[in-house]
Design goal:
alpha/beta, Rossmann fold, OB fold (Dihydrolipoamide Acetyltransferase, E2P), 2 domains, five-stranded parallel β-sheet, five-stranded antiparallel β-sheet, 15 strands, elongated
């Protein structure tokens, strides 16, 4: 994951040192540098920033003025940087992520970055869960005419055939020219490709989250984002299934297809 980062300090050498230290972390992406609070406010209003390193003592107004003008809710994760320690209590009063004293030690900065990344992952996971909850609500409340989709599938098995209720299918996995239907502890092999099944099943209930996986939305318990292009879903049974970026988008949009 890339962490867009803004550096705010009126001292050029201090900005240069922090930029140098951050450069050793491949996940940090410097979004800009500011010399005073006015520039910080302008930058935060014009772009999305994940992490802010904010010097407390700058010409004009102190770094705390940024919180006063934008409000804590609109602030990115903020790490206060200063040569003095008397502002530490106030820094945490405004819910700063951390408080670093100059000169910043590489080991101390590494700890702060680890904390920031963990906080950002938790925030992203919570946002995803909220969006998915909204999708499920749409699935339950949206009415109107719907296209007819099969309620059960006939699965040949040697000399006999079995009926599989579609709603009982938890997930489907591609197996060359076959598809594996996972129903509880049982697996049924159907001679149809996963693409053919995706075209047959109700897209409001069955979503192709990966080129080789279709999932029953009603059996999904959690969605996990593990980067910008990959992720996973956890089923009610505890089964973990991989998910592509396109699959994640389909899963979040499924409510609008009903």
């Amino acid at each position: 994951m890339k962490v867009t980062t803004l550096i705010a300090d009126d001292e050029p050498l201090a900005r240069e040192r922090l930029r140098y230290l951050l450069g050793s972390d491949g996940e940090i992406e410097i979004a800009g540098e500011c010399r005073n609070t006015r520039e910080v406010v302008s930058e935060l209003k014009s772009k999305e920033v994940d992490l802010l390193f904010l010097d407390i003592q700058m010409p004009g107004q102190a770094g705390f003025a940024v919180f006063e003008e934008l409000g804590s809710a609109r602030m990115p994760l903020t790490v206060f940087v200063t040569a003095h320690t008397q502002y530490a209590v106030k820094a945490f009063d405004v819910r700063a992520l951390d408080y670093l004293t100059k000169p910043i030690e590489p080991e101390r900065l590494e700890t702060t970055l680890a904390l920031a990344k963990e906080r950002l992952k938790s925030k992203a996971a919570m946002a995803t869960q909220e969006r998915f909850a909204s999708v499920l609500a749409n699935l339950e409340t949206k009415g109107g005419a719907r296209e007819k989709y099969p309620r059960r599938l006939l699965v040949p098995n040697g000399a006999k055939s079995s009926f599989v209720m579609v709603n009982d299918i938890e997930w489907i996995e591609a197996a060359d020219y076959y598809s594996s239907l996972h129903v509880g502890a049982n697996t049924f092999m159907l001679r149809e490709t996963i693409k053919e099944l995706a075209n047959q099943l109700d897209p409001g209930k069955f979503v192709r989250i990966h080129r080789s996986i279709i999932v029953n939305v009603e059996r999904v318990r959690e969605i996990l984002r593990e980067g910008r292009s990959v992720g996973a879903v956890i089923l009610a049974s505890g089964r973990r299934l991989r998910m592509s970026k396109v699959g994640w988008e389909r899963l979040l949009e499924v409510g609008g297809k009903r």
